[in-house]
Design goal:
The protein is α+β, with helices and mostly antiparallel strands and 40 residues long. The chain has one domain. The protein contains one helix and two strands, in the order αββ. It has one helix spanning 10-19; strands at 25-31, 34-39. It has a two-stranded antiparallel ribbon with strand order 1-2. The longest helix is centred in the middle third of the chain and has 10 residues, at 10-19. It starts with 9 loop residues before the first helix and ends with a strand.
Length: 40
């Protein structure tokens, strides 16, 4: 997933979750360019 115009970085994804109202965002798994977050 190397096209930066199409995909958010891991940091951008976490920031978007926080901006969406999630106070706690943690990374559960990172594999093959993908990330699974837990957000509450």
């Amino acid at each position: 997933m190397g096209n930066n115009a199409l995909y958010m970085t891991v940091e951008e994804q976490a920031q978007a979750l926080r901006a969406g109202g999630f106070d706690e965002v943690s990374e559960l798994l990172r594999k093959g360019g993908m990330v699974l977050f837990h957000a509450t």
